[in-house]
Amino acid sequence: MSDLATRPDSQEESRPLAKPELYFNRELSWLDFDDRVLQLAEDGRTPLLERLKFCAIWSKNLDEFFMVRVAGLHDMVDAGIDSPGKDGLNAAGTIERIRAVVAGQHARASDALAATIIPALRERGLGILHLDQVSAEEREQLEERFLRQVFPVLTPLAVGLGRPFPYISNLSLSLAVRVRDPATGQELLARVKVPKEMLPRFMPVDGGHCFVPVEEMIAANLERLFEGMEILEHTMFRVTRDADFTVGDEADDLLQAVETELRRRRFGEVVRLEVQAGMGDAIHTQLVEALGVEEGDVMEVEGLMDLGDLMDVYGTPGFSDLRDPAWHPVTQPRLIAEEDAEPDVMGAMRRGDILVHHPYDSFVSSVQRLIEQAADDDDVLAIKLTVYRTSDDTPLVPTLIRASERGKQAVCMVELKARFDEQANVRWARKLEEAGVHVVYGLPALKTHAKCVLIVRREGDGVRHYVHVGTGNYHQKTARLYTDFGLFTCDPDIGADVADMFNGLTGFARQRRYRRVLVAPAFLRDGILKEIEQTVQAHEAGKPARIAMKMNSLVDGACIRALYEASVAGVQVDLNVRGICCLRPGVEGVSENIRVVSVVDRFLEHSRVYGFQRDGGWSVWIGSADLMPRNLDTRVELLAPIGEQALRDELLDSVERCLADDTYGWDLLPDGRWERRTPAEGDRSSVQRELMAKHGEHAT
Q1: pTM for the whole thing?
Q2: Exposed (0-12), middle (13-18) or buried (19+): which is 45, by Cβ within 10 Å?
Q3: Is 234 in the active site?
């Protein structure tokens, strides 16, 4: 292989594998992923409540996309940065394309809800109703509940002489009301915030199985809020603000710096204004001027706004026939203990490496049990773990506190800059510090995204390292919703490597080499490129060679160019990429040996597996990193090799099932379209359903 893949981008603009037509736009590719989510909401084969859930997920995904990615593009435009990306589009051009794509998706989501999903749910006894669709008796009950629970917390804010336009918080849903004073004829604009942060968005009727949006109740009672005024018009709007932030290298107190930036987040620039279809010109003009947005950033929405709140309706008890069949994770067979006994995870690890696959394997009886067992073991000297995202009710943090109280060295690397989980992590960090746990925040310029636990146990006249390396967060809730792998190992080299990584995070060590693992930002990209190069060399020597990877996103230019070179050399490259893929497959002479498949199903495909076939076997790695510049250059990431053949086979089997999924799989075509696969009649392949069936055989 040539050195093309490792050359800086700035030196490659004229090289064949750096041509813009070989790369898809990162932001538009992400929108393609959210489109696949929306397609599941539109799919009549998806259970009704799951279709509602996918509408909510699509909407929440889009919110974050605007708060971070679109906001970043606006920053580039404001800074006068006009240089194109690898795909040839500059920031302004990308924004224009985004506006068109999102407008189309909004129209489809609104149509799917209004024309199909909501009417079908009503037929099954679960309704989202307009106020004029409820009976007189139900209307009276709603009115009484509204006056008792909602009306007291409403605060109308008028705009006029001496009354500036009020601050509109990020993602808040509001009514814009145009009123006239009959005494003076003066017209004013007022804003009423929908208080959905403290009260349910949907008010239940009919025994709690039908709901009316609270904004409709507010609109029906505007005369009470503006007594003596004439209501000329009312309409809905919603604001999305820039919610990203950066903590510079110069920050002396990272915790304080993050808390300061969190307070600033509320006041980010407006990057999107959603308005109700049919909004009058007067209100429209005043909102645009007051919020300082361009007309292109105004999006007209038919029907319900802020579809993320539909998750509240999705959670309505009962209606199991309208959902996917329930799945209950099982205990990994190697960890099954005697009846009524807790699993001896460390004992099982001493007998050999163990692989778990969530949510099919239980997080509670594996990862959580390992940390609990270590906290209660008198021979355990230290427990160290990384926390990127975790739940508010996680038992892992209290377990660390218990370990510290028992005299063990408890160390928690808390990533304060985990986007949109910063506040929760700040809260846990303070609680841990108060309990005597050693809390480390990492480096201001890097995010610690690695997922690992290190347990140091006294055995004989020395110590043994027990290590867990995962592809997902230590978050018991997402462990039931995301697919992730975890390796439990006592391998001495991996244990020493993870110990060295923690020393680098907690102290001032700058590791010059690792024995077996790949750690970003210093070593991971080079390690992946070396694996690709060695696989190409094996193919050129006439040996069986193949590359099979599973990840969330593929963006990094050097890695894409290396995969192109592997394809040019004749190596088959099979990629299972859930989300963003900037690589263009199927291009003659460049990527005809590369195929890209995406699986989007009931569980979020989140695991990262990197496999390289050569020399009669496979080199397989799992860990926290996607092949993106942010993962490889500005994060602490960890990939671990899989040593045992049986575990490699299990990982590769899962990847092959993803590549073969013809029920929830999409193929990326050379023109950038994602084409959903259509299974043959009576012969369907679904990786998630196959793995549920396979693991269900182990249930006890």
Answers
A1: 0.92
A2: exposed
A3: no
